[in-house]
Amino acid sequence: MSTQNSSMAGLVQKYNVAAPRYTSYPTVPFWDENTFSTAAWTDQVYHTFTQSKDKGLSLYIHLPFCESLCTYCGCNTRITKNHQVELPYIMSLLKEWEMYLAVFKERPLLSEIHLGGGTPTFFQPENLKLLIEGILKHVDVTLDSSFSFEAHPANTKTAHLQILFDLGFRRLSLGIQDFDPLVQFMINRHQTFEEVEEVMQNARTIGFDSINFDLIYGLPKQTETSVQDTIEKSMLLGPDRISFYSYAHVPWLKPGQRHYTEADLPKGTVKLALYNLGKTMILAQGYADIGMDHFAKKEDALYVAFQQERLHRNFMGYADHYSPLLIGIGVSSISDAWGGFAQNVKTVEEYHKRIESGILPVVKGHILNQEDLIIRRYILDMMCKGKVQLDPETHLTGQIKEELSTLVMDGLVTIEGDMIRCTVTGRSFLRNICMAFDQRLLKLRSKPQLFSEAI
After folding, report:
1. What's the pLDDT at 16?
2. Could you tell me if residue 447 is inside a domain?
3. For the chain, how many structural domains are there in total?
4. In the predicted model, is pLDDT for residue 26 greater than 90?
5. Same structural domain for residues 45 and 10?
6. pLDDT at position 449 over 90
7. Does residue 364 carry a pLDDT above 50?
8. Are residues 342 and 381 in the same domain?
């Protein structure tokens, strides 16, 4: 029997290997820190800024504080109930922003702000106002700007929503993950349906026009029944977008995940069944599948960008807006200047120390070479468009086709000349497909496990 006719169970067993999520290329574990320096980074930032300043830049602000640890979480967080940490952290953020303003050498045009974490709504509303006003007084804002923030439904007050709306925020992402009480107990993430409903109603009344739900499949103690219940409840609330992520089990990086064992986790075909169930239910309600893990209503800007092949993928996932320059400020934030990446220090103490010393807090990064830039474009195109037009003039074309040959036989991609297309079946294996393009990963096949499983 042809391998193209292999069952989905067989494909899952074959392709459920450790794989990057490809929010960047090269992926962070393969950054070449030997060729990176703060001076090289600021040179790249200035170059990209001057080449694209009419497009506007994006700003990501990492707010790491949470009052309790969600054990599934892979983000950089600081657990505390001491809200005295808010103002000193905001002052450091504004000082870091001033350092980047000095690199730009002129007043920038800002097209996007995203507040991530951590829990941005850990901060008091008036302190968020102080932060955003401190950012905005140094910039001009594009007419089509997009301001968004992440929120925990259990601590998001009407004042958070109103103050951020007044500052230009129109998009909100609610971290829900799962409504099931047992799953919430296992991951130490507690919010009721009623709390989520109240935040949704308040946000709609105030005027937010795009609300996203973050949901996760593969969590401990999840079952088809609990996933079905979570999706049904989500559909009752009608978010504009849904991010339905695969749980990444990396306890060697995140010790909090040792709160449960692998025996508690749905794996392989069981985990894929949870995804297929959720996806089927989401699509049945009129949402469109616009890329790995992401769904949107057909009037939403994310779907429009997908239809117009303007979709972009960055460290936050899929986006309907693309800026060549993404500056990340705050602890562990990652910046992207297209030709280079940089990440900040990962502890609050070291971050404050560097800022107070007048030192840009980047601690590692990568300056892309010509091959990196080619592969980066290929992987972005596959992730965002489901197709890649190979450049026949590069030495990589033959090798990539060879790496894809098994995926062709398994019906995950097709090759016509130099055009690579992902099939319907292949959409469930996008991470595996992108691995065939990943030159840095291919050169280190014997590397120990660095990533979560693909499925």
Report:
1. 78
2. no
3. 2
4. yes
5. no
6. no
7. yes
8. no
Q: Which residues on adjacent β-strands are paired with residue 442?
A: none
Domain containing 69 equals: 31-367
H-helix or E-strand spanning residue 190: none
d(CA 183, CA 265): 11
**Pair of tokens at residue 60:** 């990501």
In a domain, 197, yes or no: yes
Provide the CATH number for the domain around residue 399: 1.10.10.920
pLDDT digits (tens, 9 = 90+) for 178-233: 999 999 999 999 999 999 999 999 999 999 999 999 999 999 999 999 999 999 99
Structure tokens at 246: 């695969």
Q: Which residue has the tokens 């808010």?
A: 86
In terms of C-beta density within 10 A (0-12 exposed, 13-18 middle, 19 or more buried), how is residue 308 classed? exposed
Which of 244-248, 251-255, 362-366, 371-375 has the lowest average pLDDT?
251-255
- Output the six-digit token pair for 321: 């807006």
- How would residue 255 be classed by pLDDT, with cut points 50, 70 and 90? low
Percent of the chain whose pLDDT exceeds 70: 94
Of the residues 304, 337, 367, the one at which a domain ends: 367
DSSP secondary structure, 332-394, as one string: T-EEE-SSEEEEE-SSHHHHHHHHHTT---EEEEEE--HHHHHHHHHHHHHHHHSEEE--TTS
Task: Kindly list the distances between the CA atom of residue 446 and the CA atoms of 442, 449, 450, in Å, as whole numbers in the listed order.
Answer: 9, 9, 11
β-strand pairing of 387-389 with 362-367: unpaired
For residues 27-55, one letter each, b for 16 or more C-beta atoms within 10 angstroms of the residue's C-beta and e for the rest, the string is bbebbeeeebeeeebbbbbeebbeebbee
Q: Is residue 451 part of a domain?
A: no
98 inside domain: yes
Cα 138 to Cα 106: distance, rounded to the nearest angstrom: 10
* Contact between residue 451 and residue 38 where contact means Cβ atoms under 8 Å apart: no
pLDDT band at 321 (very low <50, low <70, confident <90, very high): confident
Alpha-carbon dihedral sign for residues 383, 389, 395, 400 = positive
* In a shared domain, residues 338 and 408: no
Q: Are strands 287-291 and 294-297 parallel, antiparallel or unpaired?
A: antiparallel
Amino acid making up residue 38: T
- Between 19 and 109, the higher pLDDT residue: 109
Per the CB < 8 A criterion, the answer to whether 332 and 345 are in contact is: yes
